[in-house]
Amino acid sequence: MQWPFEVFIGLRYLRAKRRNGFISFISLVSVLGIALGVAALIIVLSVMNGFQKEIRGRILGAAAHIEVSDYQGRVTGWQPLSQFLLKQPRVLDAAPYVSAQGLLSVSGTVRGAMVRGVDPAYENRVDEISRHMVFGQLSALRPGGFGIVLGDELARQLGVALGDKVTLITPEGNITPAGMLPRLKQFTVVGVFKMNMYELDSSFAMVDLRDAQVLFRLGDDVSGVRLKLDDVMAAPEVKAQLQTVLRPDATVTDWTDMNANYFRAVQIEKRMMTIILTLIVAVAAFNLVSMLVMVVTDKQADIAILRTLGAAPASVMSIFVIQGAVAGVLGTCSGVLGGVLVAWNLDPIVSVIEHITGSKILSPEVYMIDYLPSDVQWNDVSMITMVALGLALLATIYPSWRAARTQPAEALRYE
After folding, report:
1. How far is CA 282 from the centre of its chain?
2. CB 393 within 8 A of CB 226
């Protein structure tokens, strides 16, 4: 099949050796610039997608999809409420809980903790903590046993292991002739879990539901009921539906509300990084402008001869559009291939860098996790590819238009 002469000449100009080596260098820089910009954008967005997916999974491993309580944070008669909630669409399981803050003390070492009272028989249905036990079992929590399950980092900071005693200090005190004194209760460590999320592992503890009710003087009341849904992404929709069928004083929060600031920050950061790195791709793409302007200047005589032989201005313009577009396609495809390959193999690459430098790239105390997760989403890759190709094509218009305006007599005057 015969190609149109515009395609033939455009491709020939792209691969031919030029008298001016600087033009060839600029062409190479333009292609490499687009490739690096596209690869960087794919890698950064993949890492941010990976962070969001990983942190969301770990948060949901310890948090319920929805929590139902009231404005005072205290629910009376949780069994009828739980039965009513289980009849609602998309609700699979329900579990009561008591939530409070406290201080854990061992031999003068004190750490703050979020204490949750749970019934192991129900708790296993709404979260995955029992699957992440390092030592002991969640089922070891029994009424009246005053056992406690700690995050592994919290246990390490306190210096305790299975069977050790820890003292839980509650915010509510006892009134005595000497004044207000904090309430103290000694617990036995019956389990240690590790969610691989520093915030949870370093500040979260679980006790039996009945023990928590006694300790925090709740009687038979609980803080609320936690729900598990058939689809975690449907939580906002189910929350809105529950608010219409529950009492006005009921409060319903879903997992997106509990971590709203984090997910909002990640979304804003992802959007801003996309804009910034797209500008880098744009700068690289518009290097094609300088390259094509130099090529047009270098090929004035060729353009004049083509015009003399009857080539229309549109044909001349097409030659240089094709030349620039092919360079843009080469850069974009190289960047997509390189970016996807790096994103797929990011963890071993980072491990090698950490081994060479002898330092940890991510601190779990700051970033919640200690490695770089990566999640390549093809809709992001497609968006990046289309934007890069569009910018490359846009960059070819002005130089090609200048080439089409070349007057044969003026171009050949000094040849």
Report:
1. 25
2. no
* Host H or E run for residue 106: strand 91-106
Give the containing element (helix H, strand E) for 100: strand 91-106
Structure confidence by residue, pLDDT tens digits, 233-270 = 888 899 999 989 988 888 998 888 877 777 777 778 78
Phi first, then psi, for residue 280 (nearest 5°) are: -65, -45
Taking only the tens place, the pLDDT of each residue in 149-191 is: 999 999 999 999 999 999 998 877 666 555 556 688 899 999 9
Alpha-carbon span 326 to 319, nearest angstrom:
11
State the DSSP code for 111.
E
Residues in the chain predicted with pLDDT less than 70, given as ranges, are 1-6, 8, 10-24, 173-182, 361-370, 409-415
Which residues pair with residue 118 across a beta bridge?
97, 208
**Three-state SS at 301:** helix
Tell me the per-residue pLDDT of 181-222, one tens digit each, with 9 for 90 and over.
Answer: 668 889 999 999 988 778 888 889 999 999 999 888 888 899
Beta strand 204-208 pairing with 109-118: parallel
Query: How confident is the model at residue 295, as a pLDDT?
Result: 76
Place of tokens 């080539």: 311
Q: Rounded CA gap, 63 and 116, in Å? A: 11
- CA-based torsion, 237, 240, 246, 251: positive or negative: positive
Measured CA to CA, the distance from residue 117 to residue 143 in angstroms comes to: 11
Burial of 80 (0-12, 13-18, 19+ CB in 10 A): exposed
CB atoms closer than 10 angstroms to residue 289: 17
Neighbour-count burial for 200-209, b at 16+ CB within 10 Å, e otherwise: bbbbbbbbbb
